Description:
mainly beta; Immunoglobulin-like; 5-stranded antiparallel sheet; 4-stranded antiparallel sheet; 1 helix; globular
Amino acid sequence: MAFSFNEGAPKDRFTITNTGSCSIENATIMLDLSTSKSGLIFDVTGKGAGVEVFQPLVIMTGADALRTIPSVKDGDNRIELDIKQLAAGKEVSFTIDVDDTMGGREITVSGSEIEGAQVKFSQSGTSETAFFASNASGLIKVGGC
Length: 145
């Protein structure tokens, strides 16, 4: 399974792609920004922890693969995707605003700032964890068919 982050103005985009040869079913994918180098948070309201521009979570592709749309509060640093079924080659992507809390240009996030953010895949009582690399992407091993 591949995951990536694309900084955009005004919306940032996360993409999770099933790169395997079989469907992913009854699984959860946790994106945890608390382990990132820049103390990243989700900025979803005009008042709160974020800086200037804000954007709520919007599922762009793969909404039908999810059991529910995740709830995100301003200042949260985790999102959990509850996967019902994600077919091979398909993706779930969403836009949201991500800000750093360590100073600098807080309204933009570079690949190196998301480096270290954790992605945890859980299914059938087992889990695998991977981290965003400095190029704002990564791979995580999931079980076979």
